[in-house]
UniProtKB/TrEMBL annotation:
<dbReference type="InterPro" id="IPR058637">
    <property type="entry name" value="YknX-like_C"/>
</dbReference>
<dbReference type="InterPro" id="IPR058792">
    <property type="entry name" value="Beta-barrel_RND_2"/>
</dbReference>
<dbReference type="Pfam" id="PF25917">
    <property type="entry name" value="BSH_RND"/>
</dbReference>
<keyword id="KW-0732">Signal</keyword>
<comment type="similarity">
    <text>Belongs to the membrane fusion protein (MFP) (TC 8.A.1) family.</text>
</comment>
<dbReference type="GO" id="GO:1990281">
    <property type="term" value="C:efflux pump complex"/>
</dbReference>
<dbReference type="Pfam" id="PF25989">
    <property type="entry name" value="YknX_C"/>
</dbReference>
<dbReference type="InterPro" id="IPR006143">
    <property type="entry name" value="RND_pump_MFP"/>
</dbReference>
<feature type="coiled-coil region">
    <location>
        <begin position="103"/>
        <end position="175"/>
    </location>
</feature>
<dbReference type="Pfam" id="PF25954">
    <property type="entry name" value="Beta-barrel_RND_2"/>
</dbReference>
<feature type="signal peptide">
    <location>
        <begin position="1"/>
        <end position="17"/>
    </location>
</feature>
<feature type="domain" description="YknX-like C-terminal permuted SH3-like">
    <location>
        <begin position="287"/>
        <end position="352"/>
    </location>
</feature>
<feature type="domain" description="CusB-like beta-barrel">
    <location>
        <begin position="214"/>
        <end position="268"/>
    </location>
</feature>
<dbReference type="InterPro" id="IPR058625">
    <property type="entry name" value="MdtA-like_BSH"/>
</dbReference>
<keyword id="KW-0175">Coiled coil</keyword>
<protein>
    <submittedName>
        <fullName>RND family efflux transporter, MFP subunit</fullName>
    </submittedName>
</protein>
<feature type="domain" description="Multidrug resistance protein MdtA-like barrel-sandwich hybrid">
    <location>
        <begin position="65"/>
        <end position="204"/>
    </location>
</feature>
Length: 357
């Protein structure tokens, strides 16, 4: 009796399992005889932004290296690295005494020559009167006139020496050529400096020069004037700019070429920092479809065009891919109905049904 009960229980469970499998088959058979359940959408024309992305480096457009224009011992340094300075601020003072003495000597030479020239001009006037009366010869008059001309030339040279001495004296005080910050200081008080020797580097943070590296394969796609959207990791907000120049050569180490963008500092951007850049290479109107509509098959990327509740496999040429839509460069026309959700379960000539049905 127990064996009969066990057999009946087993047959009952088997029957229940069969019913469950039939129900699952009915659910999966959304394909069934009625076709695969999908959603559809019309292929539409959209604006496609063709872009190139890179990470650039921030540099200061104005970063003069300040050098000495006169030689001498450095007496006072008014700044330290990192200090903010305004144009015209005093940065360094060189011992002015030798240049003060040189200026005094030059001015003395000018006064001496002015006195000599006045005396010689009066002599020339008297000689001219005596020449008319015959008391001096023409050659004597010409000699005096030549002396006047020589003194005039000497006086002009002496006045130039005064100007040079005044300029040298002014150059003993080193002033900031631009607004900015002291990036580097290479001298100390007591050092002896000479013309052309670097002393300081001032970095202006107001105008920035952004270097954007690109692979050489992209070089032919970029042009001066193309819009660029910039974002620095250290500061929020986008900054709009444009390519101002393209470097003609490639970097030796990286084999990349650089596009240059000049912008005003929006605030918080610093030389040496990085910036994310998106260059708008081209903007065009193209057919686009949802990303889910594009299916990878052995023949390539395809979409399924729906006609009379039947899916027709269509190989397409894909262009730019966006976050939710993809450009179709060839193989699909505007307005054609395509499968979206469920497209991955389709095959060519498969029957379909939509959620509306």
């Amino acid at each position: 009796m127990a064996r009969k009960l066990s057999l009946l229980l087993f047959l009952g469970l088997f029957a229940l399992a069969g019913c469950s499998n039939d129900d699952d088959a009915a659910e999966d058979g959304d394909a069934g005889n009625d076709g695969v359940l999908i959603t559809t959408e019309d292929a539409s024309i959209s604006t496609v932004n063709d872009t190139e992305r890179t990470i650039g480096r921030l540099t200061s457009k104005t970063a003069p290296s300040i050098t000495a224009e006169v030689s001498g011992q450095i007496q006072v340094i008014h700044i330290e690295e990192g200090d903010e300075v305004a144009r015209g601020d005093t940065l360094v003072e060189i011992d002015p005494e030798p240049y003060e003495l040189a200026l005094a000597q030059a001015r003395t030479d000018v006064r001496r020559l002015e006195v000599s020239l006045r005396t010689q001009r009066r002599e020339l006037e008297r000689s001219e009167e005596l020449l008319e009366d015959g008391y001096v010869t023409q050659s004597e008059f010409d000699a005096i006139e030549g002396e006047v001309e020589s003194l005039e030339g000497d006086l002009e040279g002496a006045r130039a020496q005064v100007s040079n001495a005044e300029r040298d004296l002014r150059n003993t005080t080193i002033r900031a050529p631009v607004d900015g910050a002291i990036d580097e200081r290479m001298v100390s008080e007591g050092d002896y400096t000479s013309p052309g020797e670097p002393m300081l580097t001032v970095v202006s943070q107001d105008l920035l020069r952004i270097r954007l590296p690109f692979p050489e394969t992209v070089a032919q796609r970029l042009e001066v004037g193309q819009p660029v959207q910039l974002r620095a990791p250290v500061a929020g907000g986008d900054v709009d700019g444009s390519i101002s120049e393209l470097r003609p050569g490639l970097a030796e180490q990286s084999r990349t070429f650089e596009a240059i963008v000049n912008v005003e500092n929006p605030g918080g951007w610093r030389q040496g920092g990085s910036v994310n850049a998106v260059v708008l290479v081209e903007q065009r109107e193209s057919v686009t479809v949802p990303n889910d509509a594009i299916i990878q098959r052995p023949s390539g990327e395809v979409v399924y065009v729906i006609e009379d509740n039947t899916a027709h496999e269509r190989t397409v040429e894909v262009g730019r891919r966006g976050s939710d839509r993809t450009e179709i460069r060839n193989g699909l026309d505007e307005g054609e109905v395509i499968a979206v959700d469920g497209a991955g379960f389709l095959s060519d000539e498969a029957a379909i049904r939509t959620d509306e049905e």
